[in-house]
Structures are given as C-alpha cells and as structure tokens.
C-alpha cells in the first residue's frame, strides 16, 4: 500500500551530488564550477587538488561524492566518467552590520551558495 516510486530524474548513465549552504559567494564558487565542467573526473580532481582557492576542498569533496554515487549506487565505471554539469545556485544571505563613524552602520552581507555536480559515463571511444 505504499506510494509508487518517483521516476529517476537523471538518465541511467548519470549520477549527482549536491552540496548545500557553502559559505562562499555564488560568483566565486562558479569560477571553480567552470574550471571542472566538461572534464574527465580524474583531471577535474587533479585541478581541484592544486587549486589555490579556499573553497576548492569543498568542491572536490562534492565531486568525490558524485563519483562514489556513480560507482556504488548506479554501477558506473569510474574511468569513463565526465563532469557533465556543475552549476551553482544562491542560498541565503546573512545580514550583519559593522559599526561606522558618527553612529552609523555599514551593512555586511555574508552569502551562501549551493553546488550541484552531475557526472556522466561516456564511452571510451567518444572521449577522444
């Protein structure tokens, strides 16, 4: 008497990982998403490992999670995976204030972002 299972949103050769509430602005996070978009996962992991950006570690963990989801949940071959999509969304923005001269206040905004990474298994011949 249970409900019918929801259809899978992704194709059979895809897996996804989402990291929510990352403490960085979406604009800065999108720079790293652009860096790995369309690359093979081993190359993308190497780029993130040697990136000097603070948030690269969180992006790398999300990519590793997507790879693990592909391998364990969907039985995909890790060597044939490509970062199909990597996109960034806005999350909340904490508003704070900073005391300024003459009794005034300066507004300080602390943005958060969401990151979604989709990996796709591509045939070995198509990667050339």
UniProtKB/TrEMBL annotation:
Q: Name one Pfam family in it.
A: Ribosomal_L22
Q: What domain of life?
A: Bacteria
GO cellular component, alphabetical, reads: ribosome
Kindly state which keywords UniProt assigns to this record, in alphabetical order.
Ribonucleoprotein, Ribosomal protein, RNA-binding, rRNA-binding
The family this protein is said to belong to: Belongs to the universal ribosomal protein uL22 family.
Q: What does this protein do?
A: The globular domain of the protein is located near the polypeptide exit tunnel on the outside of the subunit, while an extended beta-hairpin is found that lines the wall of the exit tunnel in the center of the 70S ribosome.
Which PANTHER family does the protein's record reference? Answer: CHLOROPLAST 50S RIBOSOMAL PROTEIN L22-RELATED, LARGE RIBOSOMAL SUBUNIT PROTEIN UL22M
Under the subunit heading, UniProt states: Part of the 50S ribosomal subunit.
What is this protein's name? Answer: Large ribosomal subunit protein uL22
Q: What organism is the protein native to?
A: Candidatus Rhodoblastus alkanivorans
Q: What gene is it encoded by?
A: rplV
């Amino acid at each position: 008497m249970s409900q019918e299972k929801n259809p899978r949103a992704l194709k059979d050769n895809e897996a996804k990982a989402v990291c929510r509430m990352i403490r960085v602005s979406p604009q800065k996070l999108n720079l790293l998403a652009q860096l790995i978009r369309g690359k093979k996962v081993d190359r993308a992991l190497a780029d993130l490992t040697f990136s000097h950006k603070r948030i690269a570690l969180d992006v790398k963990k999300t990519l590793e999670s997507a790879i693990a989801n592909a391998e364990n949940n969907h039985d995909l071959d890790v060597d044939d995976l490509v970062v199909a999509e990597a996109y960034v969304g806005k999350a909340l923005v904490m508003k704070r204030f900073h005391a300024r001269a003459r009794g005034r206040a300066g507004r300080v905004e602390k943005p958060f972002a969401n990151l979604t990474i989709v990996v796709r298994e591509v045939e070995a011949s198509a990667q050339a």
